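Take one protein record:
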Amino acid sequence: REIQATEGEEQIVRLLRRSAQHRLARYRLHLQEDSLHRRLNILARMLEDEGQMPTWEETDSGRYLLRQHHCPLLKVAQHFPQVCDVETWFLRELLQAPVVRRCHILEGDVACVYEIGDGRGTIAPKAR
């Protein structure tokens, strides 16, 4: 909060993005698989190591749903919801696929749920 008070909200977003870029570089070392299905398998194991309790499934439409049942950054996100936007960006960059958050722990859902496209089309944004 001190950074936000002295440097402004933009500095918070820059710090969050920089941290996510370092995380992205680490994760990319392990996600060299060509299929999105295999990348999601590996990603789920890595997220589990972070304490996120992930599950994922392929839908009938060929898209994927990634659920994060636990958020180790929940307390931070309650004060800085930008953390959640950066997480969506991180997943999009890492998987090189369209990603839209459909459910959100901060909004009272039991998990953060991300719909992940196969890269062949777009995903409609979440209705507000």
In short: Residues 9-28 form the longest helix (20 residues). The first strand starts at residue 54 and ends at 58. The domain at 2-116 is CATH 3.30.1380.20 (Muramoyl-pentapeptide Carboxypeptidase; domain 2).
